[in-house]
């Protein structure tokens, strides 16, 4: 009987709270929390990974008819050679003009625009990954348009485009070795009002996607190498007087019987944004 009580007391002592040995895993190495931190306790923002984004400031400026297309006052401050001689001539035949301005020339260009009684309509900021596409709307909700385009081989062709928005699609890519050097690519396009339905297979099965159809003028695609804080001016050229030219359909509008021209000013910038 005494042996029974001895065994019983030993068993009872082993199961009472506070007397058991902690699991062996708790004695292992401490949890590595070097990848996590709190702004309240430790400021380590300099160690956070950064995501590179391209930010493009877009200004729409409206000037009276002829102030941009028939005048050299703006363009005398801008460099058109970086676009390339062949592409520059191609744009000109279709009523478009593109010029690059250095950051120290902006004050002079802004003064010229003021003398032209230029009125800034809107200013917006486009943000995305380098290489993302941005659609800048120039004329919205257009009816069916008949547009003729001169090609590089000096031939002329025309087509009727469906109702939609006339947009300038741009993409800003960045030099991997020097983030202060960029390449801006642009192309005028018509974005259809009526969407197109397509089916796409994803992780959750087949999905039905509705998207606008883009009708681009590939012959008018242009590329301009730029440095940080440079700006690009895009507007109508002399050939925009032709009623069915691309320049007229995109950059000239009528308001109560009077014509006005739109001038775009694009200022791209590359930022390294910390990832939270």
What can you tell me about this protein's structure?
The protein has 276 residues and is mainly beta. It has helices at 2-15, 85-93, 106-115, 246-251, and strands at residues 50-64, 96-101, 119-128, 133-142, 145-150, 156-161, 164-174, 181-192, 196-202, 205-211, 214-216, 222-227, 231-236, 252-255, 258-274. The strands form four sheets. Strands 1, 2, 3, 13, 14 and 15 form a six-stranded antiparallel sheet that branches. A hairpin with a 2-residue loop joins strand 9 and strand 10 (205-211). The radius of gyration is 31 Å and the shape is globular.
Gross morphology is: globular
Low-confidence stretches: 12-42
The CA-CA distance between the termini, in Å, is 69 Å
What is the H/E order? HEHEHEEEEEEEEEEEHEE
Main beta sheet, described?
Answer: 6 strands, antiparallel
Helical/strand content category: mainly beta
Q: Whole-number radius of gyration?
A: 31 Å
Total number of beta strands: 15
Q: Mean of the pLDDT scores?
A: 80
Strand proportion, as a percent range, falls in over 45%
The tally of helices reads 4
Pick out its properties.
mainly beta, 5-stranded antiparallel sheet
């Amino acid at each position: 009987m005494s042996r029974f009580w001895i065994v019983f007391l030993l068993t009872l002592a082993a199961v009472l709270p506070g007397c058991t040995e902690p699991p062996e895993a708790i004695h292992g190495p401490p949890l590595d929390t070097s990848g996590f931190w709190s702004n309240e306790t430790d400021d380590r923002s300099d160690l956070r990974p950064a995501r590179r984004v391209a930010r493009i400031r877009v200004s729409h400026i409206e000037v009276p008819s002829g102030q941009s297309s028939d005048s050299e006052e703006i363009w005398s401050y801008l460099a058109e050679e970086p676009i390339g001689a062949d592409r520059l001539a191609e744009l000109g035949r279709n009523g478009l003009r593109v010029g690059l301005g250095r950051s120290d020339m902006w004050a002079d260009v802004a003064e010229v625009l003021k003398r032209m009684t230029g009125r800034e309509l809107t200013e917006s900021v486009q943000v995305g990954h380098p290489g993302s596409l941005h659609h800048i709307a120039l004329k919205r909700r257009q009816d069916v348009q008949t547009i003729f385009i001169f090609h590089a081989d000096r031939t002329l062709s025309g087509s009727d485009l469906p109702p939609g928005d006339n947009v300038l699609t741009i993409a800003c890519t960045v030099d991997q070795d020097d983030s202060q050097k960029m390449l801006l690519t642009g192309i005028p396009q018509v974005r259809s009002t009526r969407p197109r339905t397509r089916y796409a297979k994803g992780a959750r099965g087949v999905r039905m996607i509705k998207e606008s159809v883009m009708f681009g003028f590939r012959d008018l695609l242009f590329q301009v190498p730029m440095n940080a804080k440079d700006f690009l001016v895009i507007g109508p050229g002399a050939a925009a007087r032709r009623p069915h030219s691309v320049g007229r359909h995109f950059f000239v509008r009528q308001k109560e019987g009077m014509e006005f021209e739109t001038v775009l000013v694009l200022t791209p910038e590359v930022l390294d944004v910390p990832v939270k």
